[in-house]
Amino acid sequence: MGVFWEAIKQAFSLLVHGDSYVYQVMWMSIRVAGTATIFGMVIGIPLGAWLGIKRVRGWGVAATILNVGLMLPPVVIGLFVFLLLSRQGPLGSLSLLYTPSAMVLAEFFIAAPVIAAITMGGVASVPKDVRMQAMGLGASRWQSVWLVLREARVTLISGIVAGFGAAISEVGAVMMVGGNLSIAGHNQSGTMTTATMALVRQGDYAGAMAFGMILILLAFVITFLLTRTQQGLRRRWLQS
Length: 240
Known about the structure:
Oligomer: single chain
Structural class: mainly alpha
Low-confidence stretches: 182-188
């Protein structure tokens, strides 16, 4: 127990005094996960909305593939991105392996299926009558789709948050394609999750605990904001 409490005390000290290494890695993690989540939204929300609204031929196969993406082990995604960006891979000439861009790509493949699947479920739960009535009142096709997305906005926000959470908490895939980034131009040791593993191996429990505390704090803050947003949207919906 002595080691545990000592690590917490030292972690607080690192955070309060603004240790440069800790904050560099923290911002790297947020930037990488945030960028991956934005790209995941750009792809995942339209795809999920399309699958949630349409029932075209091959829908079952497409939905199954999307749901399988939720269950893929992250290390498999890391291996896929690694081979894609390696020197012998199709994108090897871009020299992206062991860079923040490689980590963004890996986290994108983790976040996008989460956002798309939750969006699909949320959009599919909106009664079909909503869209049909809107079109019957003269709304265009895109206006009716936008109305459905508005009705499912609470679920969409949950999907975005879940995608960000999956991205920022990832370890295996990020470590495989990003390494420790101890190369020219990058002094940070990857993301908070990979840095935590590296610091534990080095016996630096205070630094590892600092990253753990930041990740827990991020989870609380994001969950709090999500809950408040959901409550506000429901309140407005009940008042309308």
